[in-house]
């Protein structure tokens, strides 16, 4: 016990896929250097919580933070490109590392390798899209393979993740490594500092919560509303999507179909509505989602298909992209927003905070690469 207490203390705020993966990387890379505590209001057992983001991920276009209250349904998360334009170097590295990690995990039953087709209104340059170097079995579709209204398309093999199995697996791995989970809502950086102790280090993986976490209060954080339908459709074995792109997407539509091979469940979507905090189901939108999906995959209309639930959630995005950086905050922490309440740490020092949030729809597909990048910042402390 004394040896454990002598280790420098890392406190991770948030137990979504980013927070859990950071803990996994820390305990793998530094098995004997730190003791790790994860503090969050919702943990992987709280899969029905309206506030827990990661169980409700649906793809690269994942739904996060606020979920439907209808009932718990199983979701899937996949790798999908948001644009044919090459992302920045850091984004590419995060996603390449994550893709390769998930691809190699298929034997565990936590991930699946499935075919993926994307249709484009324009065919120019598809043979040289940037993600050709990331995915497997890439090829450009022939004109005979294209539906009406589209002049181009690509097909490749991608990964999907089963969050309902994956998150508990991550937690169990961490428990076996001695990671402690504390079920508690953190309102201020000062509270986290109290838990971390005199020489502690904080990882902030709070998603949309970074907007209201006192001491961070990042107003660049915003939601992207997503609405989907969970369907039992065992005949559907492949992902199909239209590109969202990186523009404003004024109509807020996002078409994608993502199967869960293990149970015959399929997620169809959806919407991509920036700065929309509405978490109620819009059934007119649901009908539009269904009509768009069956246009591309008539197998959804099989007699064996049935709609299980309608779901709404918010993707935790950030203007300018995700924030992965080291910040140092002066202690003791005092905020007028907490009526002068101070933490228990009274001595003056700098508290290192490593931020990792604002991934929008790419939480799963960038999780391992982002965690590695965030943990590498420990070396500069």
Can you offer a commentary on this structure?
With 381 residues, the chain is α/β, with parallel strands linked by helices. It has two domains: 2-51 and 164-219 and 320-380, Rossmann fold, CATH 3.40.50.720; 100-159 and 222-318, D-Amino Acid Oxidase, subunit A, domain 2 (D-Amino Acid Oxidase, Chain A, domain 2). The protein has seven helices and 16 strands. It has helices spanning 2-6, 17-29, 89-103, 163-176, 189-196, 283-296, 367-376; strands at residues 8-13, 34-40, 77-78, 111-120, 136-140, 152-161, 180-183, 201-204, 221-232, 239-241, 253-260, 265-271, 273-274, 306-318, 323-331, 349-357. The strands form two sheets. Strands 3, 4, 5, 6, 9, 10, 11, 12, 13 and 14 form a ten-stranded mixed beta sheet that branches. Strand 1, helix 2 (17-29) and strand 2 (34-40) form a beta-alpha-beta unit. Helix 2 (17-29) crosses helix 7 and helix 3 (89-103) crosses helix 7. It is elongated and about 70 Å long. Its cofactor is FAD. Keywords: FAD, Flavoprotein, Membrane, Oxidoreductase, Transmembrane, Transmembrane helix. Belongs to the DAMOX/DASOX family.
């Amino acid at each position: 016990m004394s040896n454990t207490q002598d280790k420098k203390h890392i406190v991770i705020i948030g137990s979504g896929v980013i927070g859990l993966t950071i803990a996994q990387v820390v305990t793998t890379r530094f098995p004997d250097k730190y003791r790790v505590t994860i503090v969050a209001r919702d943990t992987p057992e709280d899969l029905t919580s309206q506030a827990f983001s990661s169980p409700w991920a649906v793809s690269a276009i994942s739904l996060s933070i606020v979920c439907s209250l209808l009932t718990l349904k199983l979701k899937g998360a996949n790798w999908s490109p948001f644009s044919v334009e090459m992302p920045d170097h850091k984004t590419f590295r995060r996603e390449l590392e994550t893709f390769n990690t998930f691809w190699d995990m298929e034997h565990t039953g936590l991930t699946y390798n499935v075919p993926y087709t994307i249709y484009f209104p324009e065919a120019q340059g598809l043979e040289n899209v940037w993600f050709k170097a990331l995915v497997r079995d890439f090829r450009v579709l022939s004109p005979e393979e294209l539906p009406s209204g589209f002049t181009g398309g690509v097909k490749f093999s991608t990964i999907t993740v089963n969050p309902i199995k994956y998150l508990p697996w991550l937690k169990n791995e961490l428990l076996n490594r001695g990671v402690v989970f504390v079920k508690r809502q953190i309102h201020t950086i000062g509270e986290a500092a109290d838990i971390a102790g005199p020489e502690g280090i904080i990882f902030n993986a709070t998603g949309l919560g970074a907007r209201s976490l006192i001491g961070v209060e990042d107003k660049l954080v915003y939601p992207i509303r997503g609405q989907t339908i969970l369907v039992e459709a065992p005949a559907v074995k492949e992902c199909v999507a239209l590109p969202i792109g990186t523009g404003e997407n004024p109509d807020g539509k996002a078409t994608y179909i993502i199967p869960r091979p293990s149970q015959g469940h399929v997620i169809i979507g959806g919407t991509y509505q920036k700065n929309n905090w509405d978490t109620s189901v819009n059934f007119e939108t649901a009908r539009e989602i269904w009509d768009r999906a069956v246009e591309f995959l008539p197998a959804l209309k099989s007699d064996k298909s049935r709609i299980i639930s309608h779901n709404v959630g918010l993707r935790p995005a950030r203007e300018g992209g995700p924030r992965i950086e080291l910040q140092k905050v002066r202690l003791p922490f005092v905020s007028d927003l907490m009526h002068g309440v101070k933490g228990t740490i009274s001595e003056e020092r700098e508290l290192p905070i490593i931020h990792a949030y604002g991934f929008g729809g790419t939480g799963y597909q960038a999780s391992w690469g982002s965690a590695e990048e965030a943990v590498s910042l420990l070396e500069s402390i």
